[in-house]
Design goal:
By secondary structure, the protein is α/β, with parallel strands linked by helices. It has 13 helices and five strands.
């Protein structure tokens, strides 16, 4: 009997290929917009005054274009999601998107970005969710010159897909560092989660007002398990800082009611919640990646790769490339499971169905 190849790389490629074959390569939405932080950023931080940059080696060591501002050894999750949705090319970052390219969509994500404007302040500049929404208005103005009257732009945007990945930095680079963020230090975990949801609700409503109807909201992943947090606080037997994950669960538990509220009160709204914590935990458990708590590259105190130092050679066996961000292998699998439901990780539907509505 032939031996089944269980190398994480080939498991990831097999699943992506299977999903693409099953659902076809036809572009499923006219445009795709990403809002988020470093897991989604593909170049918006390159020109900012911040330590959170990735436009240098060893980032991009496995990417055809080299270091581009993706916090990965290769492609990141938005690249694979665009592929699964039938786009021929990756969605460009706002920093470089020009001309007719914006009609296919724009990636506004910025490493360090948060729901709160002060999140990641100690690390330098970043494009917060509020600033990303302002940048989206600039894109909409550009679409008016391409598509015509505002009513036509609105009709066009109503058919597009929006993916929003926010909240992780509000914990990792804000709440759990009270020495740097005294504004939130006195809040209980429940109070902090409530403030985040209140602000997030306002932001998502603004996105709806600008024309978004099909919106996927990612939950916060288990950030208590990333190497940067493990280096800051003692982990327990599980290998994670469990109380940090408990904090983020208070936020994640509020996302389903938020989705229900938005869908019930905004005409034509189709918001969904994606359980990123469940997706990542199931992937790590299923592929057997042998190196979990150690980053693939040498990292600085800020948790990003030290420039121009060779990373690990067996990158397919690592979960994390640096102290925050997963390797391309993990991102392939995340994209597949973000696109089509394999476990009960969506509410009330999955991205594949959302795109086709």
């Amino acid at each position: 009997m032939a031996r089944i190849n269980t190398n994480p790389k080939w498991v990831a490629i097999f699943i992506i290929c299977l999903v693409v074959k099953s659902h076809g390569a036809q572009q499923q939405v006219p445009c795709l917009f990403f809002f988020g932080a470093s897991l989604t950023d593909n170049g918006n931080n390159n020109m900012l005054n911040t330590v959170l940059k990735s436009n240098y080696p060893p980032y991009g060591i496995d990417f055809y274009a080299g270091p581009t501002g993706r916090f990965s050894n290769g492609r990141n999750t938005p690249d694979f999601i665009a592929q699964l949705l039938g786009f021929n090319n990756s969605i460009p970052p706002f920093a470089t998107a020009t001309g007719s390219a914006i009609a296919k969509g724009v990636n506004y994500a910025s490493a360090g970005a948060g729901i709160l404007d002060n999140t990641s302040r100690a690390l330098g500049d970043r494009i917060s969710m509020n600033r990303q929404l302002s940048n989206h208005q600039i894109t909409i103005s550009g679409l008016s010159s391409l598509l015509g009257p505002s009513t036509q732009v609105q009709d066009y945007l109503n058919k597009c897909l929006y993916i929003v990945e926010m909240g992780s930095n509000d914990y990792v680079n804000n709440y759990i560092q009270p020495q740097n963020y005294p504004e939130t230090a006195s809040l209980t975990p429940d109070q902090f989660a409530a403030i985040l949801i209140q602000q997030y609700t306002t932001q998502l409503k603004a996105l709806y007002t600008s024309g978004a109807r099909k919106v996927a909201i990612y939950g916060v992943p288990p950030v208590g398990c990333i190497p940067q947090v493990r280096a800051m606080f003692p982990a327990n037997a599980s290998g994670c800082v469990d109380y940090v994950n408990k904090y983020t669960r208070l936020f994640n538990r509020r996302l389903k009611p938020l989705v229900n509220n938005l869908n019930a009160n905004l005409t034509g709204a189709k918001f969904i919640y994606v359980n990123m914590s469940g997706i990542l935990i199931s992937i790590i458990a299923s592929i057997g990646a042998s190196i979990f708590g150690t980053p693939c590259c040498a990292v600085s105190s800020a948790g990003v790769c030290v420039p121009n130092q060779a990373p690990c050679k067996n990158r397919d066996l690592y979960v994390f490339f640096d102290n925050y961000h997963t390797t391309e292998i993990i991102d392939r699998l995340v994209a597949a499971r973000v696109y089509i439901s394999i476990l009960t990780t969506y509410y009330p539907s999955e991205i594949k169905n959302l795109a086709q509505q």
